[in-house]
Design brief:
Layout (H helix, E strand, L loop, with lengths): L1 E6 L7 H7 L5 H6 L25 H13 L4 E10 L2 E3 L2 H9 L5 E6 L4 E3 L11 E4 L6 H10 L1 H5 L5 E2 L2 E6 L8 H14 L7 E6 L4 H7 L4 E4 L9 H6 L1 H10 L3 E4 H4 L13 E2 L1 E2 L6 H4 L4 E4 L3 H15 L8 E4 L3 E2 L4 E2 L9 H16 L1
Parallel strand pairs: 1-2, 1-15, 2-4, 4-8, 8-9, 9-10, 10-12, 11-14, 13-15
Antiparallel strand pairs: 2-3, 5-6, 7-8, 16-17
């Protein structure tokens, strides 16, 4: 059994964010100004052991890996931003990890192939979101350049593999034109560069109906992420209809009990050998979106443990090499979706996951 945690590299300043949001902007800017929006709302969320860290500091990255090991996590999946025509953003932390050899912790890359927009959070939709930087797909030459820009990472001894293939996650697979041709091209390039079996492509997906479609398009596996499942699941929508109506009428965040959500995070499709489940410790988008956010209310380490046990029960019947779990996320603080210690729970989420994964590995 292996656990791969999504990792956000947003916690350091870049000139683009300086221009869009003000000098020194990082994800901490939103996290630090978050406020309570209803009774019992857990905000603001304050980091503990690592503080409001800067990912330019190597000691921070090393400490993150040490904490991840305590949690039983095997690798970080660093979100990777390639906007086309050679344009990259937020690449510095991973570039430092690659060049320094530290931390000595497994990793892989997930292509966050999505246009960045300045959201206009209103209920009337009278304004359009402002595009900050557009994700484009210029064609085969750009795919070729993209591959060679990260070939060094694929060749690193720390790069995470499944069935001896370096894995590569694509966040928005349906946004990529001619995805079959892209997969064939990259597999051919990988074989040319010393990977006889090619790459292992994983599609990030939220809807059950997309699983077979994506597998037919050439993906090796699917990572099902059901944090937004309330938008696609009729049974769940019926259970949370009242909170949805209250949210719209009172113009306040959509508050859904985490104890309800954990019953829907993992479903029957994840029993398939090539459909990987996701552990979701918490969710609160209000630091970014205010009253228009969604909150999985009252997440606790105890309930998180119940959720983890459900995920482990799903994978235990699979072959060892297919017992893959993703964790969303290690450090998405702006979405209230993280494992790192905070002032309220300290390391309880890390300790809970660490205990359960150790117990599972001892038995299996």
């Amino acid at each position: 059994m292996k656990i791969i945690a999504y990792y956000l590299p947003q916690f350091h300043p870049i000139k683009e964010n300086d221009n869009w949001w003000g000098v020194g902007f990082t994800e901490w800017t939103n996290v630090g100004k978050a406020i309570k929006l209803f009774r019992g709302h857990y905000q603001p969320k304050v980091p503990k052991d690592l503080g409001y860290y800067d990912l330019r500091v190597p000691e921070v990255r090393i400490k993150q890996a040490e904490l991840a090991l305590e949690a039983g996590i095997d690798a970080f999946c660093y979100w990777h931003y390639w906007f086309g025509n050679g344009k990259r953003l937020l690449e510095m932390p991973f570039t430092e990890v690659l060049s320094s050899g530290k931390p000595n912790f497994q990793f892989c890359l997930g292509w966050a192939n999505e246009t960045w927009k300045a959201k206009v959070w209103n209920n009337t939709e009278s304004k359009k979101d402002k595009t900050l930087i557009e994700q484009v797909y210029p064609g085969e030459e750009d795919h070729y350049n993209h591959f060679y820009s990260i070939l060094e990472a694929f060749k690193d001894i720390r790069y995470f593999k499944i069935h001896d293939k370096p894995i590569f996650v694509i966040y928005r697979p349906f946004m990529l034109p001619k995805i079959e041709e892209f997969i064939i091209l990259w597999n051919n390039l990988a074989k040319k560069e010393g990977f006889p079996n090619g790459l292992y492509f994983i599609a990030y997906a939220e809807k059950n109906k997309d699983i077979d479609i994506l597998l037919k398009l050439g993906f090796d596996a699917i990572n099902m992420v059901r944090a937004g499942e309330y938008a696609h699941n009729n049974k769940l929508i019926k259970r949370i209809l009242l909170p949805i109506l209250i949210s719209k009428l009172l113009k306040r965040p959509l508050k859904i009990s985490y104890s309800i959500m954990i019953k829907y995070f993992v479903q029957d499709p994840e029993k398939k050998y090539n459909v990987f489940p996701t552990i979701i410790p918490n969710w609160d988008h209000t630091p970014r979106s205010g009253k228009n956010g969604t909150v999985f209310h009252n997440s606790t380490p105890f309930l998180f443990g119940k959720h983890v046990k459900n995920v482990l029960d799903i994978i235990k019947l699979k072959k060892r090499d297919d017992q893959i779990i993703f964790l969303k996320s290690w450090n998405e603080w702006g979405e209230g979706n993280y494992m790192e210690p905070d002032l309220k729970y300290d390391k309880k989420y890390i300790e809970t996951l660490g205990y359960l994964t150790k117990e599972y590995r001892n038995k299996h």
